Amino acid sequence: MNFIRNFIVSVFFIFLLCLIQISILNPLFLGCYSYIYVLFILVYPYNRNKFLFLFLSFLIGWVIDHCMNSGGIHAFSTTLSAFLRLNFLLFFDGKNVINRNDFSIYELPFIRKTLYIFSLVITHHFSLLILEILKGTTLSRIILFRAIFSSIFTTILCIIYFFFRKIKH
């Protein structure tokens, strides 16, 4: 029963993030530089089913790809980021993740949390933009600048989310 409840809550959160991305951020100029749906990968609990997490990450990328007609690049980038998430967390927080079953990203100090968010976001954006170049939609000279600026902007949006989430607790 708990598994089904967690699945339904996760699907609702995916739907909400996709709705924000597609209806608010994409029509604005910001849609080119911000991908807020990466927030799902950041906030998904670490002690839950890893296969389900990878599937849900693929699902959120697939929904974005379907709505933006981008041919699977978002699905690949979100799945790659979800796969590498634990490695980044182990790098920035060490053994605390392994030793504690109730670990949460909200417990990380601000600097570690910011570096963790930025690392995961730049991995997502860089893989996304490399695939976009291979698809032939952008110039290859601007990939590094676009990846860095979009990662910074998305990181700022994620930090704002975590700031308000901290106040709420």
Write the layout of secondary structure elements.
Layout: H1 2-25, H2 39-43, H3 50-68, H4 73-93, H5 96-99, H6 110-135, H7 143-168
Helix pairs in contact: 1-3, 3-4, 4-6, 6-7
What report would you give on this structure?
The chain has about 170 residues and is mainly α. The protein contains 7 helices and no strands. Helix 3 packs across helix 4 and helix 4 runs antiparallel to helix 6. The longest helix has 26 residues. It is globular. The model has no long low-confidence stretch (mean pLDDT about 80).
User: In which range does the helix fraction lie?
Assistant: over 70%
Please, how many helices?
Answer: 7
- Beta strand count: 0
What is the end-to-end distance? 26 Å
Tell me about the largest β-sheet. none
List unreliable stretches of 5+ residues.
Answer: none
Measured by DSSP, the beta-strand proportion falls in under 5%
Tell me, rounded to a whole number, the average pLDDT.
Answer: 82
Radius of gyration in whole Å, from Cα? 16 Å
